[in-house]
Amino acid sequence: MRASLAWLLFALGAAIPSVAVLVVALRAASTESARAREEQFAERVAAAQATKRDVDAALARATETLRRLEPAAVSRLESRLMAEKPDFADVVVIGAEGQMLVPKPMTDEPPSPPECLTHRAELLEGDRTAARDGIIGACPHLKSEQGRYLWPLLALERVAEGSTPADAVATWIEEHAARLGPAERSVLRARVAPLPEKVRDAALGALDRPLPLHRTLAGLLTEPPGSDSVEAGLRIHRGRYLSLVRTMPEGIDAGFVVHESSMIRAPGLPAHLVLAAGARGDATDVVLTPSLVLHVEPKDGASLDAEARRSGRRILAVGVAGVLTAVALATVLFARARKAQRLAELRTDFVAAVSHELRTPLASVRMLSELLETGELPDDERPEVERTLAGEARRLSDTVERMLRFGALARGRLSVQKSRVPASCILEDARDRFHKAHPDKGIVVDAPPSLEMHVDPGLVGLVLDNLLSNAAKYAAEGHPYRVEVRRDGRHALLSVSDSGPGIAARARRRIFSPFERADDRLSRATEGTGVGLSLVRGVARAHGGDAFVKSTVGAGSTFVVRFPLEGS
Predict the structure, then answer these.
(1) Residue 130 has pLDDT above 50, yes or no
(2) Which of 6, 163, 197, 542 has the fewest Cβ atoms within 10 Å of its own Cβ atom?
(3) Where do the Histidine kinase domain residues begin and end (predicted)?
(4) Cβ atoms < 10 Å from Cβ of 549
């Protein structure tokens, strides 16, 4: 009970600082995660500022280039502008009639045959199935009156019916993706979703490719003027795109266009950061026009968030590891202190027990000696007194001898003087000694007459005396006791059995240790020093053997001592 209370108090004492340290570690982890995110944001702000400075400087150089531009043929204008353009800008040259000369437009598709136009009309007014089959079979370039391709939508209908292979749709999209506008791409992305995975991935990959530059710029330049201005002879547009254009004498417009897609080539960004569209309204914005605002963001935001969390978790892990280490060390030290305290208590009990065992025979010897000394003892009682005196003297001698042997064992100086002796003689001598001390207890000896043991007879006799004495103390009602020896391969197994109360499993692991006893409650009611079984195991190991116990609670115990048989 006292041990349980001590461990409970220790657990409470260890829990309070441990919880406090864990709370601090949690706060430190949270702070570390926030610090990591702040560092990431600060890096993005610095990258945005550097990008804006680089863009402004490059645009200033581009402006000077346009001011110094001399009239020339379109090809020469293109070459000069391409050599001087900022990395994040595209060159544009527009003819006097408003046609885009640079970048060069895609070649025109062949015109659809008359029968394809007939099929298109029949889709709405005639036999739709026949018209659809005709278009799929011979009109891959046919467009609706609104300028959108008909072939992929009609082919997807037949794919759903199972009459057209899905990979034919993916092939058409890969061949025509450059001519598809944003609206058509959006419709087709939704329509190809049910296709088989491999076909779908191929189609989506084609649809995700950037639009051809001519197509992109043509779409942007249709934006109506509204925020245009003229500065130093240059016309500047600030809307969904930023353009710097100079009108040459021949009516040709030449200049640079900066738009959302071109800004991905902007300088000044670390490899793990990118520019993304959409105003954020924070310090990571790169503002080119009121409608062209980009912001710096991580290329892999989830990875950076995970790294911030990992930074916090590392702090927490260090805190938890520190707490666990401290608790483990404290537990080990406390356990050792408890063990030392228990050992000190056991040694105190041992000294008290030895004193008691010595005092009892000494008191008897003194009393009987005084009776003999006074001469007042009747002659008819003298033999009984002398026998009792001799018995107490032997008891005293046995106790002293046991203590001397235990001391020699503890110092590793137990001397073994072996001789070959019949096992039956050792057992019968032990039986006789036990009968003299306990005439009311029965004992059964079983030893093969031919079995000889190469042992120290005195020490083996001491082993049997201790085991039988323990049986008489702790299993008083469990006699007759059985003492047996038998051959087991290259060993002799010497056993002492009783049918007493048995020994609990948790006690079996410690009863062979010095000062330990099998049952504390039963031990307090019996005399003993707690070194008997320790001496039994020590004698066995000094011979090269060992000792162990087999026991069942309520059914008795068997102590077994194993001795090697030399020469067998």
Answers:
(1) yes
(2) 197
(3) 353-567
(4) 21
